[in-house]
């Protein structure tokens, strides 16, 4: 039997699907969901739930002791667009929550951590195409700065204290079960909802803004595979590059038009354009493939098919 797992930030876009998948795998009672707010019915009804503030060390410690938690997935974070509006709140949430779980592991109260990083760790001086695992990283966003700092701390806690912390740099994630909130890549989810509802979408990123993206099923599979891999296979303890597809707004529009021929796309770039312009267009994830066997399954057209089928019901 798998030892108990705690998901912090279980009600967000990734947390919701991760919690459900882990509960399917390891049993509902073995996966404790937590967040500062309640989630949707499938999350709330499939296993235990705790209201929890990710910045409150004592509260997390209480839950860890109560359920005899072995692993934590820390999914709570303020994303790129919102973080530009609230820099200090973003820094406090993104960094303090990470220190809380790193310190619990340092004190041997838990054994393993998953912490998500992002393509936002890269900046305008990073090579734009086929961005390698190790390269220039000068993030120009609040969110990116917090993720890059987090990566440095993860590697430090691994090397200095032997903390088993594992991480991937998620690209933009596309899913139909839960809406994303406050990210720059959110347009790639909103567009499917609007295409089905109104037959049109106004993109806040302009034509030609190519970004790395991934269908949620691939992201969840990568996350669980990484956590289940033997420790000696995990050679990168900052965070792994992870890739599947890259596309610009006009590409996703063309993919939707294969199913909804009258779909219309217009463009009205806002402050998120500058954030997107600072990020890579495509990612080289050779290390993740070689070290722990990562392989994506969904391309853009398969993603479109899944999104329209599931949202259309
Ligand atoms: C965002 O847009 O902020 C996130 C991310 C790429 O980490 N989806």
From TrEMBL:
GO terms for biological process: L-threonine catabolic process. Residues 5-242 form the NAD-dependent epimerase/dehydratase domain. GO terms for molecular function: L-threonine 3-dehydrogenase activity. Pfam families: Epimerase. InterPro entries: Epimerase_deHydtase, NAD(P)-bd_dom_sf, NAD(P)_epim/dehydratase. It comes from the Bacteria. Belongs to the NAD(P)-dependent epimerase/dehydratase family. This is NAD-dependent epimerase/dehydratase family protein. It comes from Flagellimonas sediminis.
């Amino acid at each position: 039997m798998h030892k108990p797992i705690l998901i912090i930030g279980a009600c967000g876009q990734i947390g919701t699907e991760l919690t459900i998948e882990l509960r399917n795998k390891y049993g509902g009672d073995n996966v404790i969901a937590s967040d500062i707010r309640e989630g949707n019915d499938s999350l709330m009804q499939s296993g235990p739930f705790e209201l929890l503030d990710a910045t409150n060390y004592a509260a997390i410690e209480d839950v860890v002791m109560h359920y005899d938690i072995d692993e934590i997935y820390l999914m709570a974070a303020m994303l790129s667009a919102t973080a530009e509006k609230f820099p200090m709140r973003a820094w406090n949430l993104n960094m303090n929550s990470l220190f809380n779980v790193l310190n619990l592991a340092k004190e041997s109260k838990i054994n393993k951590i998953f912490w998500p990083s992002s393509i936002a760790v890269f900046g305008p001086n990073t090579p734009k195409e086929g961005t390698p695992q190790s390269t220039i990283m000068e993030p120009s966003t609040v969110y990116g700065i917090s993720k890059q700092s987090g990566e440095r701390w993860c590697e430090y806690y691994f090397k200095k204290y032997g903390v088993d912390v594992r991480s991937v740099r998620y690209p933009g994630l596309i899913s139909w079960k839960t809406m994303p909130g406050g990210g720059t890549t959110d347009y790639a989810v909103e567009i499917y909802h609007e295409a089905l509802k109104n037959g049109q979408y106004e993109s806040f990123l302009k034509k030609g803004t190519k970004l790395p993206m991934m269908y949620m099923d691939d992201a969840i599979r990568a996350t669980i595979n990484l956590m289940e891999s033997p420790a000696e296979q995990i050679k990168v303890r900052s965070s792994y590059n992870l890739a599947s597809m890259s596309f610009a707004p006009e590409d996703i529009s063309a993919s939707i038009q294969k199913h909804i021929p009258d779909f219309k796309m217009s463009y009205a770039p806002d402050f998120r354009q500058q954030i997107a312009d600072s990020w890579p267009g495509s990612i080289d994830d050779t290390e993740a493939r070689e070290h722990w066997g990562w392989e994506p399954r969904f391309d853009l057209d398969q993603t479109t098919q899944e999104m329209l089928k599931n949202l259309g019901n």
